[in-house]
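A common beginner's mistake is to predict each chain separately and then try to dock the pieces by hand. The better habit, illustrated here, is to supply every component at once so that their relative placement is modeled jointly.
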Amino acid sequence: MIIGLDVGGTHADAVLLSDKKVERSIKVPTDTSNLFNTVLTCFNLLLENIKPQLIQRVVISTTLTTNSVVQKNIDPVGIIVSAGPGIDPDNFRRGNHYYPVSGSIDHRGREIKPIIHGEIEAAAEKMKKDGIKYIGVIGKFSPRNPSHEITIHSILKHHFDTIFMGHKVSGKLNFPRRIATVYLNAAVFSMHKNFFNAVTDTLKQKGLTAPIQILKADGGTMNLHTSMEFPGQTILSGPAASVMGAIPHAPDDKDILVLDIGGTTTDLAVMVNKAPLLEPVGIGRGKHKSLIRALHTTSKGIGGDSEVTIKRGAIAIGPDRKGPAMAFGGNTPTPTDAMIYLGIMDAGDKSLAEKGMAQIASKLEISPQQAAEAIFTKTCSKIVELTRKMVERINSKPVYTVHEFLEGYKINPQQILLLGGPAPFMAARIEEISGIKTTVVPMSSVANAIGAALARTTCEISLLADTEQGIESAPEENYTETITRNYRKDDAMKTAQKLLEKKAIQSGAIEENLELELTEFQEFNIVRRFSLQGKIFRVKMQVKPGLIKGFSLAS
Amino acid sequence: MLKSDKKTGLVFFPAFDWAIDPTHPEREERLLYTQDQVMEEGIFDINGITEYKPELINADDIRRTHFCVPDEASVTTESHLISAGGAAAIGRAVMEKEIDNGFALVRPPGHHAMRIVHGGRGFCYINIEAVMVELLRQQYGIKRVVIVDTDCHHGDGTNDIYWHDPDTLFISIHQDGRTLYPGSGFTGELGGPNAKGSNLNIPLPPGTGTEGYLYVIKNSVLPAIEEFKPDIIVNSAGQDNHYTDPLTNMNFSAQGYAELTTLLKPDIAVLEGGYSIEGALPYVNLGIILALAGMDYSNVVEPDYHPERLKQASNVTDHIKRTSDIINNYWKKRHEMREKAGANGTIQERHREIFYDTDNIFERQKERIRICRECAGALEIDSQAMPGSRIMAVHIPLNACHACKETAYDMFEQAKTTKKYSKIFLQDRPKDEYICF
Ligand SMILES: [Zn+2]
Ligand SMILES: [Zn+2]
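With all components supplied together, the output reads:
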């Protein structure tokens, strides 16, 4: 049996699954001041009268990282960056202990200027004096050549125990995001470690010895060991859990939209043939831009409890939530009140909902019935509008080859899957407005926990091969090997697959769940003075986000 | 988060799957390392910089600028339509005021493509700047346009297309034609009788450095632009004047290019040539982007940048000053020169020979223009390509006066009466029509 647990901002959902069905599901309020207690409560409830030895897998998603970043409850981090020519690295400053140093590597990974040891030693002394324990080391173009980061690391390791390096977090190029990502990993490391060590110890005491997996923002999992190197990847795992929970109900070979309609916000995601789309570079939201692999989700301030107001003579929904619906004792009218008044939803105090509708109606000089109808329609059409915009954004993403420009895949949603509390009451209207078949995910209130439980272990590798320099390398994996001039595409693919399988197994994957996918392949000539000097190969391969095999919960 | 001063749009279309041939300078990975640099710097995450997807232009868009023989599809590939569409996307975003300025980093280039296209010249088939400018003129009603071509090669294609147009000030700054392809662009090439002085060609001697480039920008280009009062400024931003370029002999640098961009303040920059794909393009393109966005570019330098080694010789400096004086003198006398060019209403002839190096075609043209004080003048071109066919192309300019329209239709009808031409084209810009007979 499997346990899936998703600790959200207001409540925690947990499920116990057998290979046929959901055996138990629970929902408890989140104690934000003590997430550990919340996790413990969930396990106690799920494991009541269950032999802990029967549990084969445990997957946990928490808001631990997200919360600590929002509340600025993180450790001070010392950052050393080696940038070389380009934008002044001072623009990417993170924290108060930020040291730009000499040294530069170019886009081909060639050393242009060396690291100066004295500068590193001096920075180390200052950071030690400031009581810094966690260090990040980031070099520009380190995914092309990590030697400078490794040199700096080798100097610092005499002074500090915990050092995170940029080339380990991603093979993608984006220096500012690499800095932000390393910083995040270092800043939440001790908190992450303490929390999960405590969880593991407690579960062991209960006799539960199955390996713990932790959900990441890309909808995949990693084991504890891997999470200690990349704790930042747990940020924003909540929205990913819900998307994963929709997969059992997604049709094959179709593009679908997944909408998680909550009280305050609606989260949107897109799936192609049961596989959710990923952000191209990493988490892209506002201040959190990073190289952390994440599902492509958009969140907008519209939900069942959104505040309904009149703006310039028209009904406006959201983006704020001022409290619960009036039918549940709140002070501002909401879409939930409209649905209760219209009889679409049977909950709360209908007379209070009516009061809310009357408030709006009097301002517009219409009847409460008309007001409720207008609010409900407006809410649903606004949500449909969001989905349309998201699809448009994805389809207008720039591409870099003639082939992709002309033949590139275009998302064409054929079904909408709804999750979240208000979802069942809105499905029919959303279908009517969008003209797209709309269904509600069964057990949608714990779909997030189911999604976490069944998520497979994911990871990605990047391989570079340069026949002019005679090297193939995957800096993230500490891999370098010499190659000959006869090296070809097949060789690159073989190495990439080998490295990816190894990494996945080390992160806790089981062989049968390794669904590999080539995400990028480029092959270029190196030409100088009109003659061919060699070839460059760039390969990115991933274990696709998806569900583990052997569990059929589809309705 | 990093924020730019100006709202800047970028189209990045490296066409990683298109090449003239695998070891040709105009090949797949030309923008690969530029992409790496731009991605690594996090350019697309800067608040104020937006990436646009190229549009796909169509035959109608090409027909406002070119006469393609035998037709558009035969002389272009999709990559040309996307490349021109990249420039168009930036142009449109500027006109819609979504951005303050923008840069189309696209390939293949276009500034050697002339009005009549029998094939490829200097790696170019259609003129991406001209196609964009004519599209903007059609859809946004702009009139006065400045195009400053800073590619190291003479922008002879753009020069040809706007040779007779007094509403387009075309300025090309390039390595002296006696020392580099295409061998044209001397100071005396000033435009046709109706547009004398609206083509300014500024040849620079081999060995010109940043100092020389900035000298002509400050002393000749900017004063002319100021007097011309354009609606938009376009920069054909070729980067083969870089000190590492394998095809040329100049000493320009990323710092110089960024400073030039800051001075010129183009609304739209379009990448042209530039074949030092590892040592120059990543840095020059980054410099141009930051300069357009109004951001600090002081630390954008090539790995082997030593300004003292790139210092311009004093005889080169003197030569450039003299050239700049010559240009300024022509510019001052442009109205006078147009008056002297011929009597209003008469027809002037020009004979030319054009070589298409990329496709090995030789073309002979006889051009006839109506001298007109009111418009750019009715124009016909009798063109024979070898190998290829003989065609007649008649052009009615956008601002054509009544008499020139009449003349152009007469030219078209007259051509139809002979059997000399395999095709006869009429490009009617005021009606936005293109007739192929
Ligand atoms: Zn050139
Ligand atoms: Zn006229």
